[in-house]
Amino acid sequence: MKGHILFLQYCLDDSKPLPASANAIDWMEMIDWAEKQAIVGVIYEGMLRAGKALGMPFDALMEWTGYAQQIEVQNKILYKRCEDLGATFIDKGIAWCLLKGQGNALLYPNPFLRTSGDIDALIFEDRKTTVASIRRQYPQVHENFIHIDYPIFDDACVEIHFWPSYSNNPILNRRIRKWFKAQGSGFVVYKELPEGKGEIPVPTFEFNVVYQLMHIMHHFFDEGIGLRQFVDYYYLLKSEDGSKKLRSQGFRAKVTEVLKWLNLYQFAGAVMYIQKEVLGLDERYLIVEPDEWRGKTLLEEILKGGNFGRSSKLDQNSTVRKYFQKIWRNMHFVRQYPAEALCEPVFRTWHFFWRIGV
């Protein structure tokens, strides 16, 4: 595993030399690990940079190349669908922006090699109006506390968000909503899509540096989290906008104040541990001091569960059994994150009955 991590650091930072352990990597084992963590494209790009120095078997290289081509094709589809979705919102006069996902992919050196997922669109419109409009077209569509599915495309899943994220703790959840409302619509900027296909609205660095921590923390407690989201955060911190803000006087102090108010500060320390010790991020890009104790717990969960916990032992077939497995799992985190861990089963029970009433 150490060899995998060292090679990942090499893939992320083109100033790093090829680690000596790279020649001993089992590349078929590596692709299984990279798939579990949803970072195949990131590793593949590093492989291309290393070239013949890796001495990869031809059949392994073909396996990786085929997988990377699939990722590239899917990204091209999703960029087109983001463009189409934006046109739909413009036609309806709805202000919106793209959250995480394809917005994060734009920060990658190769924006076609991030393993893609859903399209998450945050809209600035009344929830009831939007839900009623979507349900007229798709009566059985899935809805939860912060978003509703919008099956407008056959080849891409779209979620329409009314809130960017939430907390299991009701007090903190009110603070998140207050923080979000305070941003207004001024946190949206436009970024160029690849291949000159227009612009897309995405959040600013200042918004993302807080919001994406919320997103990672939410998935950590809900089901698990993989390295893809931490690679996303790595590129966010090293982005051009991020580098400028992190060099500016007082920025870290302002972010720290917000993180403490939203009860994200301790989790941010764990994330910074992953950024520094696992991904090799230089200290000048860290927003808070790394927290080794919480960081090691987070790393254990990342390596065990993989992307969104899909490799964990949570029972995916029995709702009741999974409910109690999640409670047992999250009770292990009470010492480190009491506000979230203790409230998670209460929130999940409330959310179950809330969805019945929708």
Topology diagram in text:
Elements: H1 2-12, H2 27-36, H3 40-50, H4 58-92, E1 96-99, H5 101-105, E2 119-123, H6 127-137, E3 147-149, E4 158-161, H7 170-183, E5 188-192, E6 199-203, H8 205-222, H9 227-237, H10 240-247, H11 251-261, H12 265-278, H13 292-305, H14 319-331, H15 338-357
Parallel strand pairs: 2-4
Antiparallel strand pairs: 1-2, 3-4, 5-6
Helix pairs in contact: 1-3, 8-9, 12-13, 14-15
Characterization of this structure:
- With 358 residues, this protein is of the alpha+beta class.
- It folds into three domains: 82-167 and 183-203, Beta Polymerase, domain 2, CATH 3.30.460; 204-312, no CATH class; 313-358.
- The chain is built from 15 helices and six strands.
- The chain has helices at residues 2-12, 27-36, 40-50, 58-92, 101-105, 127-137, 170-183, 205-222, 227-237, 240-247, 251-261, 265-278, 292-305, 319-331, 338-357, and strands spanning 96-99, 119-123, 147-149, 158-161, 188-192, 199-203.
- The strands form two sheets. A four-stranded mixed beta sheet has the order 1-2-4-3. A two-stranded antiparallel ribbon has the order 5-6.
- It is globular.
- 34% of the residues are buried.
- The mean pLDDT is 89.
